[in-house]
Amino acid sequence: MSARVWRLGTLSVPVRRRVLLVNLLLLVLILLLGLLGALSGRLTFTPAQLLELLLAPQQGGVPGRILLHIRLPRVLTALCAGAALGVSGAIFQSLSRNPLGSPDIIGFTTGAASGAIAYLVFVGQQPLGLLLATLAAGLATALLVYLLARRDGQVDSYRLVLIGIGIGSTLAAVNGLLLVKGSLDNAMQANLWLAGSLNARSWMHALPVLGGCLVLIPLALLGARQLTLLEMGDDLAAQLGVRIERVRGSMTLAGVLLAALATAAVGPLAFIALAAPQLVLRLGRGQGVPVCGAALMGACLLLAADQVAQRMPGDLILPIGRMTALLGGLYLLWLLTRQR
After folding, report:
1. Which of 136, 140, 176, 270 could make an S-S bridge to 325, C-beta 3.0–4.6 Å?
2. Spatial CA neighbour of 222 closest among 257, 250, 260, 258
3. What is the dihedral of CA 217, 222, 224, 227, to 10 degrees?
């Protein structure tokens, strides 16, 4: 597909019209879903009331506190966690050259969850400690998978996926064992967190993943072209001037941190990292690593899943992690049947 090139000084960016249109539509959907999340609930606001509360939330009484301390952190957490998972999925699917190579399939999300569960069961529920434990466990899992996947100094893509699936299965069993240890209350809290939820999200959950997105997504954008060259093979990429291990290491670190930050904020979620990059590639018929599109699609999927979870019929309460796992299982079956 032909692309126009936008130039700004010495910087040139190829832009495909269909990809740009898909990204703009996703951005509009995100704005509408975010607005719906801020307006709706047990206490409904009109757009005029919302604008008034946003301008002076401290003077809004109970509605202002609901908006400032409940709805805005929830919407922002969903937006940033979805974007982080989408970009992380795009990075690992490119590195593994496999649409199944997302962090939730190859064990990185499960590894990050292991750290969080161990912290919840044996230490406590402080958000900062939970965040650090999740990041440390996610990085340790990625390092283990990376080292085991190396053969003759190189990381084979299929070997990375298979070893990641094995490590993830092992850690899932470890997570189950951790839940039967410690006190009953802590184990129940860990079990609830494991289901994935956006309930009771605060600024302590939203700000770390927001900061991670602001730092790491631009880095992923800068490395997207080199990742695309790596997909053609290490030898050809090296001939084109790509520092293979440096790019692979830095992008792996960025992807693991994004997945771990999202997991610390909302719990382990399936489907988002797996599906967001593939959906945006199919809609836009684009090529390369869709960092912007995957971020927008991930945010859109998680915001939409949250709205559906809040509007289940009757008194049914479905954690958002269970809903994404249900949809993700169906998507995975469809994807596997299409692989040759």
Report:
1. 270
2. 250
3. -120
